[in-house]
Every structure is written in structure tokens, then in C-alpha cells.
Amino acid sequence: MGADCVVSSCSLSVPPGLHELLCALPSQLQPHVHSQDDSTFLHNMFGERSLHSLVKLSEELQGKSASEEISELLNLLAKPHVKSLLSVHDTVAQKSYDPELPPLPDDIDDDEVSVKIIRLVKNKEPLGATIKRDEHTGAILIARIMRGGAADRSGLIHVGDVLREVNGVPVDDKKPDEIIHILVCVSVCVCVFALRRPAASVLQPQKISNRRSSGFRRSFRLSRRDKKTNKSMYECKKSEQYDMADVATYEEVTPHRRQSGAKHRLVVLVGPTGVGLNELKRKLLISDPQHFSVTVPHTSRPKRNQENEGVEYHFISKNIFETDIHNNKFIEHGEYKGNYYGTSLDSVRSVLSKKQGTIKHLRTAEFKPYVVFVKPPPVERLRESRRNAKIIPGKDDKGSAKSFSEEDFLEMVSTAQQMESQHGHLFEKIIVNDDLTAAFTELKVALKKVETDTHWVPISWTHS
Ligand SMILES: Nc1ncnc2c1ncn2[C@@H]1O[C@H](COP(=O)(O)OP(=O)(O)OP(=O)(O)O)[C@@H](O)[C@H]1O
Fold first, then answer.
1. Which residues form the PDZ domain (predicted)?
2. Running DSSP on this structure, what letter comes out for residue 211?
3. Would you say 380 and 366 are in contact if contact means Cβ atoms under 8 Å apart?
4. Domain co-membership, 227 together with 86
5. Which of 14, 132, 443, 455 could form a disulfide with 143 if both were Cys (CB 3.0 to 4.6 A apart)?
6. Cα(388) to centroid of ligand 1, in Å?
7. How far does the centroid of ligand 1 lie from the alpha carbon of residue 279, in Å?
8. Are 183 and 127 in contact (CB under 8 A)?
């Protein structure tokens, strides 16, 4: 829509000789025009071919003794409702519908480079993100992002972002319910966020799932109108950072029931170090050695006296471990106190090929993992229940087990909180390992159900 449309509503009733006047205008105006730019502008405007054609046509139509068709056309165009229609069309065509971005609040520090102003132009579609209040800081955070929704497609909002204001309305002092109301109310116009990324979430999230869905996010645009608002603005076509991150989005799921004789689902136990993963694994093996087998993880830490190669771990050098990481041989790996630990893809495949239930990491259609998060109880209960328990510390140690320290307990609980907030959406079952026997029983019941009951799984797992 542009100038052509505007001309379309000109009255066809033009004074005689208008065309000649139009042609003569630029030279007649020449003495009054001082700058070259203005002169060029006038020439272009009055020399515009479509304008000349239109005026000429109008003159011709007026001058001729009208044929039936011409009379009918003139008649139609002269009707008030056609004129109104064209006039409305032109008004709409000239109007700018770009949303106005409100200026940044004055109290934002100039050094605060992490403030993002985000403009999502919404139609009737919901934003597709949920919010929650951080228990400690009281800040309003983005809690989840719905897959395929407006927020997801934009790639501009991330889980953990702090929501500062919506459409110029500060949200710090508002309850989530009130904010949701604001978000819903602006659904037909503009939704502006000022987000501040908390220091903690700047860390690259650990990559568990690596879904690529860049095709979704294309259509959001940002236009810069007010210089005051340009602290940091993003034109988002595709966000690499988003694609790589383990973003907590909603997934399309479908009921799934394992057919008898079909491959077992991979059972994945995750939890902070020392929480009791090995203990639960060991109990599973003892309880039904025919049914369960485990992957043997790799490590770069030195073998201890009582350990055997291929039983507790495959012991490999740091160099080989790094080469294997580089060659994508590990489903998961991590570094703990200077040593690498990881589970190789081959180890999982070899266990699954024996058609036995297993324990370790992965999340694809091939393995359909059932992820159980083993969570520590509160610190007071850890002190109580782990009084006689021993852990084998990592670095610098030659195999001596030691009792848990207060620091170990605190670290276990805080790591668990971190894991749950970052990856909680991947956990299908959470078992609190307070009393070991109770935790083990709960695990056995859950694993039995995985084999027999119907469970919700991502729909993509059923396509392969
Ligand atoms: N519920 C429990 N009550 C008492 N002791 C427990 C309980 N669960 C585990 N333990 C003990 O805690 C210690 C650490 O457990 P375990 O080695 O299984 O932890 P882990 O999660 O496998 O640790 P890591 O990942 O570092 O190997 C062991 O001595 C174990 O017997």
C-alpha cells in the first residue's frame, strides 16, 4: 500500500486543462524553488506517470459523449458508498500500524547492559509463556515457554528472564494473576517487555535435549522509533542460543504403552552426587539380576584399589576422554572435581540390545528414556539418615571413603534444586531418597509401571 492507493480516491471530475497545468507546473514553480533537492522532488511528483495517465483519462472520459460503459463506470465511482470505501481504504493505507515502544524507565542504570526491550506484536494468540514469582528475590520470572507459541517463536524470551514491565506498566509490585491479566488485555495490540537476565541464568544451561525448532520463529519484528529505547534491541530471525538451550517448552505428547516383546525403555536415574544413585542401582541389580543391567560409565579419574576395570567404571585417560567427547561418543558427560565422568552411547546400546531394562542417560525416540530424579531430603533428614553413610571424595584421593560433611549435604541439596529448576521438565518421576528401603520400593513400583502401564511420551518418539 502506498501512494498509488491514495490517488485512487481522487474525484474523476477534473477541471479542463488540468493535464497541461500539471505538465507546466515544475517549470513555473522553478523560480520559487531554491534547492536542487526540492526541484527534483517537484519534478518527480508532478512528472509521475501514473498521475498523468489518471488525469488524462479523466479528461478524456469527461470530454467524450459517454458510451454506456463509461457512463456506468462514472456513475458507480460517483456513488457515495464507493467514494467512502475508497476514502477509508486510503486512510487505512496511509496509517502506520507500527506499535509505539514506550521509553525505558528513567531509573535504569546506563551500565545495565543486560536490559532487553522486547516487542511482541500479538494478535488474538496468547503469549505462550508462564510466569512465577521467585521465592527469594520476589522478582517475576518467566517460568515456562510453550512450544510453538508466540514467545517460543520469537526466540526472545527465555526461561529465567526477569519480567520488569509490560506495556510500560511496571510489574515488580504485581501478583502473577494481575500480570497475566495485563498480558491478556494487551493481546490485541503490543506487548513490551523489559527483561533483565539474572546472573545465574547467564550460564549456559547444561544440554540435555537438543531440539531444533528454528523454523518456528521468524515473524517478529522490532522497529526503532524512539532513540531513548535503544539500550539493547533485538531483531530476531533465528536465535542460535535459543536453539542450543534446553528450553522448558511444552511438548506434544501421546499415550504410549510398551508392547510385549518390544524394546525396553531406558531408565535414567539422575540426581546430585552422593544422593544414592549407585545404592539404588545396586539394589535393583541384586533384586532381579535377570531383568536389570546397567551401563558402565567411563571416567578419567584413577582406579582405586578395590575397583575393577569395566565393573564400576571404564577407566580411560583424560586425553582419550576428551577425544571421545569431541567425537560425540558420550550421551552425557561432566566434570567433577577435575575428573571426567560420562556414559557412552555404545554402552547404552549394548545393554539395550540384550533386551534388558537399564539405567542411564538419554532422551530420544531410540531409547525413550524414563527419567527418574532422585532427590535428597531436607538437610536435617540427611544429617539423620546419612549418619553412618560414606562417600568417596573425588580429586586427590586414593580411595578412602569418608563420612558426609555438612558442606556435602548443603551442596547436595543446592545441586538438586538447581537440577530441578533447570531440567525438572524432563523428569517423569521424582523420588526423595530419605529412607533407602522406601525409596527403593517406590522405584521398583515405578519401573514395573513403565513396563505395563500407559504413559505420556513426546509424540516424536512414536514416529520412528
Ligand atoms: N537413603 C539413604 N539412607 C542412608 N544412606 C544412604 C541412603 N542412600 C544412599 N546412602 C549412602 O550414601 C552413600 C552415597 O551413596 P551412593 O554412592 O549411592 O551415591 P551416588 O549418588 O551414587 O554418588 P556418586 O554419584 O558420587 O557416586 C553410600 O554410603 C550409600 O550407602
1. 117-183
2. -
3. no
4. no
5. 132
6. 11
7. 6
8. yes
Residues having CB within 6 Å of any atom of ligand 1: 271, 273-279, 385-386, 389-391, 433, 436, 439
Q: How far is CA 269 from the centre of its chain?
A: 26
Decide if 217 contacts 238 (C-beta within 8 A).
yes
pLDDT grade, residue 318 (50/70/90)?
very high
Which residue type occupies 118? I
If asked whether residues 83 and 167 sit together in one domain, one would say: no
**pLDDT digits 0-9 by tens, 172-184:** 777 777 777 766 6
**Same structural domain, 48 and 127:** no
Q: How far apart are CA 5 and CA 11, in angstroms?
A: 13
Say if residue 65 is in the same domain as residue 144: no
Of 116, 115, 119, the C-alpha closest to 127 is 119
Per-residue confidence band for 329, with pLDDT thresholds at 50, 70 and 90 = confident
Range of the domain at 328: 253-462
* Residue 184 confidence (pLDDT): 61
Candidate of 382, 386, 400 to mutate for ligand 1, largest count of ligand atoms within 8 Å of Cβ? 386
Closest CA to 298 of 276, 326, 271, 329: 329
Q: Do 227 and 295 belong to one domain?
A: no
257 shares a domain with 191: no
Mean pLDDT of 70-83: 85
Centroid of ligand 1 to alpha carbon of 118 (angstroms)? 46
Query: Looking at the 3D structure of the chain, how many domains does it have?
Result: 3
257: phi then psi, degrees, rounded to nearest 5:
-130, 130
Task: Determine the average pLDDT of the residues in 237-252.
Answer: 45
Give the closest residue (by CA) to ligand 1 atom 15: 276
Q: Which of 273, 278, 339 to mutate to test the pocket of ligand 1 (most atoms within 8 A of CB)?
A: 278
Distance 436 CA to ligand 1 centre (A): 9
Mean pLDDT across the chain, nearest whole number? 69
Rounded to 10 degrees, the C-alpha dihedral 451/457/463/464 comes to -50
Q: What is the dihedral of CA 212, 203, 277, 299, to 10 degrees?
A: 90
Return the top range by mean pLDDT from 11-25, 96-110, 191-205: 11-25
